[in-house]
From TrEMBL:
It comes from Pseudahrensia aquimaris. PROSITE patterns: IDH_IMDH. It catalyses: (2R,3S)-3-isopropylmalate + NAD(+) = 4-methyl-2-oxopentanoate + CO2 + NADH. The keyword Magnesium applies. This is 3-isopropylmalate dehydrogenase. The record marks 141, 192 as: Important for catalysis.
Amino acid sequence: ANRKLLLLPGDGIGPEAMGEVRHIIAHMNEAEGAGFEIDEGLVGGAAYDAHGESISDADMEKALAADAVLFGAVGGPKWDDVPYEQRPEAGLLRLRKDLALFANLRPAICYPALADSSSLRKDVVEGLDILILRELTGGVYFGEPKEIIDLGNGQKRGIDTQVYDTYEIERIAAMAFELARTRDNRVCSMEKRNVMKSGVLWNEVVTATHKKGYEDVELTHMLADAGGMQLVRWPKQFDVIVTDNLFGDMLSDVAAMLTGSLGMLPSASLGAPDETTGKRKALYEPVHGSAPDIAGTGAANPIAMIASFAMCMRYSFEMIAEADRLEAAIAKVLDDGLRTGDIMSDGMTKVGTTEMGAAVLEAYKAS
Ligand code: NAI
Ligand code: MG
């Protein structure tokens, strides 16, 4: 197989975590003939230092040509004063925009070994495995008009507009049903149809899409505020949650806190299938940032990055068995008591980035 992967390690702990994924890829290429073809690029502060912009056109071309992009993290105090258009985050925003990544997948998985470190009661989160699917390119973050108007009487008016068109809701709903089929076959759609017209349309279109060939999947609807409450009360009731950009932003951060550390959380962003090849553009990244407070100390938890690579195998390369094995390897090292500083607790064995990465690789090899 010829699997084109672009690595964009970025800044801070991004390159450190990515290093552990490189070892896994090298092993899979050598021992399993996985056929990953690796290309490299710069993004964020690293790209700004090299080219004066947060991602170069040449690296954007590479991203467009790749089957999938693996992204580390960007940003840090060093670039606090660079021009706004070239701030490190701009590189990530350009990638999302130019690759037209309209769907953001945020799994919230609570490994049994870490159930004690959640902010919730152990029985509420132990074994939790849900997926929040957030619409990423529409809604109130992008809708027009978007402005601050001076009303002239010492008052100003800030305006953001929630806009969704049928096609935008249809494609994210269809993706939710397809993802559910690979899991527990249940989708809960969340909006606020009681107070928002876009919520009424969201509800209608999700329901209509369900009737177009997805009726084998269980569909329920919940008001997004009640959904937030249920997510904290009894999150295991959910399988896939599909929701808009704003609610998805908030609900996925709430769900993140059910599972323990930022250092554990992967994500994927997917685009529409290509008309000729059927392949989706895709970017995989940990949820965490560049963690300047621990960068360079070798303390970063590489699991979020490694789990992002597992998602990459699952969703971009249909390497389901390998993805399952890699996720099981993560669970195994946690069961064995290995912990980086961010997830450390009494009686466990404290390790650094490279030891954690090596242990996951060993567990993968042994599986
Ligand atoms: P952060 O996620 O980088 O760090 C928050 C806290 O979590 C820190 O104490 C950090 O040490 C810890 N942490 C995060 N990931 C960890 C890991 N893998 N292992 C162990 N500990 C970990 O968020 P923060 O501090 O708000 O932002 C730092 C920089 O990262 C800023 O420049 C920010 O703009 C950028 N950022 C970039 C993101 C991205 O590249 N997608 C996302 C979030 C922030
Ligand atoms: Mg957020």
